[in-house]
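ugh ok so i messed up the first submission bc i forgot one of the chains. this is the corrected input, ALL of the components this time, i swear. 454 residues overall. if the numbers dont match what u have on ur side tell me asap before i send this to the collaborators (the ones from the other lab, u know who)
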Amino acid sequence: MSNKMVRKANAFEIINHWVLAVSFFILTITGFGFLFHLEQLNSIFGSFNSMKVIHNWVGVIFSISLFFTLFYYLPQALKLSSDDIGWIIKGGGYFSKSAVVPPQDKLNTGQKLFYLLILLMGIAISISGFVIWLMPGVKNWVLLSHLVHNISFDIMVIVVPVHIYLGTLANPGTFRIMVYGTVPIDWAKKRHAKWVQKMGF
Amino acid sequence: MARKALLISPELCIGCRGCQTACKSWNQLTGQKTKNTGTYENPPDLTPNLYNKIRYVEIPSETNPVRWLFVNQRCMHCDDAGCMKICPAPGALFKTKEGAVDFNKEKCIGCKLCVAGCPFDVPRYDEKDKISKCHLCSDRIAEGLQPACAKTCPTGAILYGERDSLIGLAKKAGYEKVYGETDLRGLGALYAFKDPPKLYGMDERPAIPETVMFWHKVLKPLAYIGLGGAVAASLLHYIAFGPKKDEEVKKDE
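and heres the new structure output, hopefully the right one now
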């Protein structure tokens, strides 16, 4: 065992991921407030009027942050191969202690698919949000956007908790990427063999 | 309290627009400049300062070359109100004990979703981007008075009273079907139409947009069931399979 660390995320990636995560949290909380008239949230956001302003502008931050993810996740997420099919067949190795999954890239299959899903839903929820915000009263556009906004919201509130679980409790050693950006090389070899190999270790 | 309503009878209306004026007077709504477009209908549409208006419909036929319909147009005070269903701000739209759909401008967040949710194209927004529409003179009826439009109507074309007795009244007068009796769980503005509603410029079957109903019935509950389910499934997985400890992760050799 060597103690050598290898960098998996740079500072910009880490900060951007936090911006995306925190804005998502604020948008989800305020979104639930609007959906279910949670007046208790007034103690945090003041009133529904100010909550709307916060929801809209945090939405802008979310959209910008989502845009920046394109540069470092999308090229990796699109590198799908037969190893990814093998990963899916094995359920990512999450349903058996003895499961061995095919070697993975810098992002594993689950991470690739999760990113593609978040990207699509994020684009849908951003555009529909801007339509509701900036084209108020245009009945058919608002109705369509209201539907799209809520469908993508539902999908995100289902997949994001699973993403958080897999990045923390389920895979010890993963969360430090969001803090330090580095992982032990042996840890990386086991989980991202193709990536480590490409780097020449 | 028994639900209150308006009974509007175009057959009795003489198109004097006293209802428009009385409404403006009581609710202190300013006038506006309009252009003569060759019709008595004026202003041409509801505005944030015009809560009700008479729609003039000319229907010339061989038997009656001058048939002219006058239809009072306003918020219908639906029991199952699309505006209230879609509104994200609690208290911005609310029901009075008489069954009127009233609003509170201070609670309104100006998102205009109610415009999309209304089956009758009623809600308007004032210069401060707050909702503005007929509230059945909620301040008057709370004191046992009639709404200004009904009070001023000289021919009884707009009657205010208990909803059930108004329906009875219309049926007694020979109207088999009262428009709004059952639509949207019953409207608070009932119409005694002699002919199909379409002739009067009304939807045969007014309804809340289907996307709004789907959102209300499926997407809304799915938001918390989905979130709760995802958290529960993660915890269950943790209990059943546990974490992927580093020493347990095997390499594909």
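quick check: Chain A has one domain: 5-187. that seems consistent at least. Chain A is about 70% helix and 5% strand.
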